[in-house]
């Protein structure tokens, strides 16, 4: 690999394979979210039940958890890009099924129960595929740039993911409103095919050592590494609990439709607001990386995330709600950069897939579990109280981890 300055804010972008990787990251993020937003909105129109939205998350997370550990094991000893290609084919198949189910003739011939079963089955299929895709993607990234610029590559990969998270929800509502559900799903299928092509343009093929230990013992090695490395364990724990209890994305259709009364276009803006805050903050972090006082920055960021979640919960003004969500995204981006840098620096190369799988189980799956928790709590206690409690719990978790991790304040990741 060629040499670039560690102080160069564009260091990681000077590697062509990394550019293809983050281009795929952007498009995959945007496309997944377009599909989730439009299907969730259609589902809420069909049921007017926040629990139905939460069940989308549950349907996706159960197969993800079941497969992700094995997916990490496979990623450590098979071609990572091949794994991602196969996973994308399965995800495309799920999108094709959704497109078919929502065709007017088929849609009208099905009962509401059949619609719900088909939707949940597709998200379960996508969760299964992501159980292989996610650890392969996470463990591929460190091989695309030199170790000395891992913090920079974390910033840019997260920025492109968040850019997709902005673009997807922002245009999803407008696409739904102006070209309709089925035409939007057709665009989703096309976009996933482009993702598949972008992955094929990556030339780097990391060597994968043959793992001779039994599969269960090999999987345990990933867990043991995480639980023995305190900074990794606490970083994963912070993100897990903040997303699990503080996430509001799954029930944003309820806020858009019933509380703020802004319709699908407003839903798109609400869904994009956290990602706008995150992207702008990540752009600043390319110049001012948060890795100097990494642990302090992470704790403050997660606390800020919880605080602005509470502010969003009590807001009845659309602009204030957008500003609060913007702030949650800004704070969340700091913790994401610190955690991703930790996960690139600490695991050995031969264990990256399994550590990524453990991280995926506890953090990535918390998005879907958080969606289910949000739906259940909103159903049981009301939408606003459930979000307020989630923000308070997040701040309480930060306090507890702060008291147990003061020695980590001296850690520098740059």
Automatic annotation (TrEMBL):
PROSITE patterns: MFS. GO terms for molecular function: transmembrane transporter activity. CDD domains: MFS_MefA_like. InterPro entries: MFS, MFS_dom, MFS_trans_sf. GO terms for cellular component: plasma membrane. It is a multi-pass membrane protein. Its main location: membrane. The chain crosses the membrane at residues 20-44, 51-75, 81-102, 114-133, 175-199, 231-256, 268-288, 300-326, 380-403. It is found in: Cell membrane. This is Multidrug efflux pump Tap. It comes from the Bacteria. Residues 9-408 form the Major facilitator superfamily (MFS) profile domain. Belongs to the major facilitator superfamily. Drug:H(+) antiporter-3 (DHA3) (TC 2.A.1.21) family. Gene3D superfamilies: MFS general substrate transporter like domains (1.20.1250.20). It holds the Pfam family MFS_1. Keywords: Cell membrane, Membrane, Transmembrane, Transmembrane helix, Transport.
